[in-house]
Write a structure and sequence with these properties.
This protein has about 325 residues and is an alpha/beta fold. Helix content is about 30%, strand content about 25%. The structure holds adenosine-5'-triphosphate, iron/sulfur cluster and magnesium ion. The site of iron/sulfur cluster (SF4) has 11 residues, from loops.
Length: about 325
Amino acid sequence: MLEIRNLQLEFRSDQQAVRAVDGVSFSIGPGETLGLVGESGSGKSVTALSIGRLLRTPPAFYAGGEILLNGRDVLKASNRELRELRGRGVSYIFQEPGVSLNPVFRVGAQIKESLRLHRPQAATEAEVVRLLQGVGIAAPEMRVKSYPHEISGGMQQRVMIAMALAAEPKLLVADEPTTALDVTIQAQILALLKDVQQRLGMSLLLITHNLGIVGQMADRVAVMYAGQIVETAPAQELLRRPLHPYTRALMQAAPRLGAEGGRLANIPGSVPRPGAMPFGCRFHPRCAMARPECSVQQPTLAVVEDGRQVRCPYWNSP
Ligand SMILES: Nc1ncnc2c1ncn2[C@@H]1O[C@H](COP(=O)(O)OP(=O)(O)OP(=O)(O)O)[C@@H](O)[C@H]1O
Ligand code: SF4
Ligand SMILES: [Mg+2]
């Protein structure tokens, strides 16, 4: 369905080029949910936005790699192919529904516009109502007439999901879809996402800081650090037994997994900026297991067991 191979993404200015994504590879199968986790600034959003080529170029520049969506390379697609691919290929929901919805149009009109763009033959009032019903909005015939500011944050996020689903995408990218919502609404939105995913057989790329959400939603997980993937594993195995020192540190920083406290707490130090990557292993200045070699040699992402991948040659050392 989706296969990203060795993606290299730079942000260029007159003064410099910084590499925000450096050699990222992962795939998502039909109907599968991949959780993408990592601290702020690790490159999750820019990786996700690259799938629909939504980053402005310049400053963004694709320096290498392939993004295959249904077998077609997004990075080589023409403008016409891109229009088709955005929507029917991949749709997005973001953290702040209030920001993504247009305040001056009624929600019904906005969903209809999404239909008109991606499934013109279905751009009817009845389909808008059906979509709103599908995301659990009560009295949808009334709601089509509401403006975004007249409905709650949770309901706004439901509207965003309905807009994304209007295109009937093969892949839904949800970038921190519940972070801005309170915990009860969070649970409802996640349950809704899971439900529509199963109903429609979509693939889901779920970006989150919350390991509890990963455990609840994801089949597999990719952990990102400083523009690279440092570990991939089936979700339950990763939560049970994280192998990379960074993943372990993340888990130790999240003591009450699954509870509200599942949100990642800080580990000492911070993610290096793209223009200032440390030599050798990018995690070495913060790694509890670092040894002298770590500041010299950059480790590769290697298969270690049962298809798990780890970017640390010392993961199994005492
Ligand atoms: N338009 C841009 N120009 C220059 N640098 C950018 C731009 N967009 C993102 N970056 C840089 O790319 C890096 C990765 O950013 P990204 O937004 O993908 O992080 P993230 O993992 O999604 O973080 P968060 O969890 O906070 O959302 C950051 O260092 C960021 O400053
Ligand atoms: S390579 Fe070294 S610094 Fe990097 S994660 Fe492994 S032990 Fe830590
Ligand atoms: Mg982000």
